[in-house]
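Workshop exercise sheet. Pairs work together: one partner reads the sequence aloud, the other fills in the structure field after running the prediction. Swap roles for the next sheet.
Pair: D.N. / O.F.
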Amino acid sequence: MSVRELVVLGTASQVPTRHRNHNGYLLRWDSEGILFDPGEGTQRQMLRAGVAAHDLNRICVTHFHGDHSLGLAGVIQRINLDRVPHEVTAHYPKSGQRFFDRLRYATAYRETVELTEAPVSADGVLATAASYTLEARKLSHPVESYGYRLVEPDGRRMLPDRLAAHGIKGPDVGRIQREGSVDGVLLEDVSELRRGQRFAFVMDTRLCDGVHALAEGCDMLVIESTFLDEDMNLAVDHGHLTAGQAATVARDAGVRHLVLTHFSQRYTDPDEFERQARAAGFGGELTVAHDLLRVPLPKRR
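Structure field:
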C-alpha cells in the first residue's frame, strides 16, 4: 500500500533547543523518500523516527544556512556506510556549490553509492518521475534560496454507475483505462478527473512571488513561520515569515493542510502560532509541527 506522509525530524530555526532539533523533513511519497533541509543532528533524528538511509531517493536543500544543511555531511556518509543500492539525487542552489562540496567531503569515508548532484539555478521543473513532477521556485532571503513543490499528474476516477449503465465490466474496465475506449464508449463517459496531489516546501523567505506560486492549490504546505506577527519587522529584516503571513498565503492559495515550522527559540508557547494563523483567516487543517511528528497528506479530493 502506498504511503504519503511528512515525517518531521526537526523544527528549530538558527539554533536547536532542548525540545527542537535543527531542521529536517522527510516526505514519504509512495515508494520514494525525499529529505528536505537536513540540519545538524538529522542522522540521529532519522534513527529516532525510524527512517533509514535506504528510504532516501532525493535530498532537497533550500539554502546553505547551517540550520538547513549542516546535517548533509552525516547523511551522505550514512548513505554510503549503509550501501544504499539505488541512486540518490541531491538538489541545492548552484550558487552554494562550494558549500555542498565541503559538506560532501567534510571527512574521509569510502564512497559506495551513486550520489547525483543536480544543482538548481532557476525556476522550473527539476525532475519528472512516474508519480510526481518536482519543481523549484526562487525565494527571498539574504542568501539564494529555493522552495520545492511536488505535483502528481491528474488521473481518472472510474464511476461504477456509469460503467454499469454502459455495460462496461470485468476485463473491459482495465481495457478502457488503457486504451481510452471500448465498443464506442469513451473513458470520459465512465470516469471523472481525479486531481493529482500537490505538496510544497517553503523555508526561509520573505513574502514574494515564489511563495505564492509554490503554495497555489496545495494539499499540504510546509512553511516556515519563524516569528509571531508582533515581530514583523524582525521577520522582514532577516528574510522570514510570521505565523500570520504564512497562514494568509495558505488561505489565499486554497491550501488544505498547513504545517507551520522553523520556530525562533525566543518563543515558548507554540499554541500562539496556531492562534495567529487562525486569526489570519486560515480555516483548513492546521498543524504546528514538533519533532518526530508524522503528518499524513490529505486524502485525494
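Discussion prompt: The radius of gyration is 21 Å. What would you look at next?
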